[in-house]
Specification:
With about 250 residues, this protein is mainly alpha-helical. The protein is built from ten helices and no strands. α1 (about 20-40) packs across α9 (about 220-230), α3 (about 80-105) packs antiparallel against α4 and α6 (about 170-180) packs antiparallel against α7. It is globular and about 60 Å long. The chain starts with 17 loop residues before the first helix and ends in a 5-residue tail after the last helix. The relative contact order is 0.19.
């Protein structure tokens, strides 16, 4: 039983500005894109698990999850104490580690495609476990006030953490560009990239709107709030990468 379930939400002394949330997202996006570009631009090897090119996106995704939970935006809210925080962290790290496993397969596209589908299956399993554990956790609370709000925030934090593993696939999307040009699939690749960018921008627009909930962020924890849309953006990145693996292997 979380001790925070007995406490009242802490009031937010200063609501974060629009540009504060956008700035957090921008910094996170720039860092993640740079580390994912290194394998393609610098020619870093991605043949083995501990090659520099393989570790770059994995380290980026891991840091994203760790910083979010260090700056946990739900600190002090009933039912979102240490258990919810640790469980969400475990979900995020599991997703990133399995994404790392996908990057270590031997044959590009054929094996990557099969392993990527397995990552999608893992994401589905994590979502199922998240709903069951999250609902069960809320039912165990003695004080069930704000049950729906607390449950929804518990779920969205877990979904965001699990989605962070999708950032492991961004180097593959960049590498697919070169193969798409060689294979005459420029139009398909452009469409996939536009799809990813549009969804990432749409998800990113959610962050500044969340700041309107005065009880959503504890003091100095709005950095974690800004990182939630960034983690969610891992899903369209994974979808775009997986979509290009099929025509590249025809």
């Amino acid at each position: 039983m979380d001790e925070t379930s007995k406490s009242n939400p802490k009031p937010l002394m200063r609501k974060p500005s629009f540009w504060s949330i956008v700035g957090v997202q921008a910094v996170a996006y720039v860092v993640l894109v740079i580390v994912s570009l290194l394998p393609a631009v610098a020619g870093l090897s991605m043949d083995r698990a501990f090659d520099a090119g393989t570790l770059c996106p994995v380290i980026g995704g891991t840091l994203l999850v760790l910083v979010f939970h260090w700056c946990w935006p739900f600190d002090g809210l009933p039912g979102l104490g240490w258990f919810s925080r640790l469980f969400s962290l475990a979900v995020g790290l599991t997703s990133v580690l399995f994404g790392w496993r996908v990057l270590t397969v031997a044959d590009r596209y054929v094996t990557y495609r099969s392993a990527s589908v397995l990552w999608a299956c893992l994401f589905g399993v994590l979502m199922t476990v998240l709903v069951i554990v999250g609902f069960g956790r809320q039912m165990l609370r003695r004080d069930r006030s704000h049950l729906i709000v607390t449950l929804s925030r518990c779920i969205i934090s877990g979904v965001s953490s699990a989605a962070a593993g999708g950032w492991c696939f961004l180097p593959l999307l960049f590498l697919e560009g070169r193969d798409a040009i060689d294979g005459g699939l420029v139009l398909e690749y452009t469409a996939a990239c536009v799809f990813v960018v549009v969804l990432v921008v749409a998800i990113g627009a959610i962050g500044p709107r969340w700041r309107g909930d005065m009880d959503l962020t504890a003091p100095r924890r709005w950095v974690g709030l800004g990182l939630m849309p960034v983690m969610l953006a891992g899903i369209p990145i994974f979808m775009g990468t997986l979509a290009m693996m099929f025509p590249l292997n025809w």
